[in-house]
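The passage that follows is intended for readers who have already worked through the single-chain material. We present the inputs for a multi-component assembly, then the predicted structure in tokenized form, and finally a short commentary. You are encouraged to pause after the input and sketch how you expect the pieces to fit together before reading on.
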Amino acid sequence: GAGVSQSPSNKVTEKGKDVELRCDPISGHTALYWYRQRLGQGLEFLIYFQGNSAPDKSGLPSDRFSAERTGESVSTLTIQRTQQEDSAVYLCASSFRQGKSYTFGSGTRLTVV
Amino acid sequence: AQKITQTQPGMFVQEKEAVTLDCTYDTSDQSYGLFWYKQPSSGEMIFLIYQGSYDEQNATEGRYSLNFQKARKSANLVISASQLGDSAMYFCAMREGSPGSARQLTFGSGTQLTVLP
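Having made your guess, compare it with the prediction:
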């Protein structure tokens, strides 16, 4: 597609439920990134995929968070047993392997009630 | 230590005037890249400008220029002739390592710019 596509755009879930967020990167972009942005704050890095290399999971805040990516295409971010502090906008970005341009999706706004 | 520091939580500028948004960074890598993004109230992240650590000239993109001072580890964004539509949150970010690594960006806390009519 022309841009990075994220779905759903909004998700309201009950505390304790699992959620899956989806990111469809720009075709041909080998690198994919997940970020979390809490209200009024900056972007926190969560996880980074680059081609077939092992992902960099150093930003995941707890073992309730995990992500997968199939090849160089779609990625899903899964949050298990959601907590209220997980409420945030989750942004996905992708990049071609030149590291000079990172394109962001519109994000998924997650609200845990 | 913070890798990206933006010391101005909020800035005001009069329409048609220039404004400088400050950004300092910290890295031990010789190769790195510096970025500025704009985030309007709609929430999208809009790429503005990129500066590579080995680029000899300051980057410019239309009304945006990056004042890169390597020895001081600063990468300030200058917006000339401010417009009302420039009102937004602005984030400075850094990629450590060579461009080909395409490693993740580290972001600062942002500066909320308000352009006054």
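Commentary: Residues 89 and 109 of chain A are 4 Å apart (CA to CA). Chain A touches chain B through 27 residues (CB under 8 Å). How closely did your sketch match?
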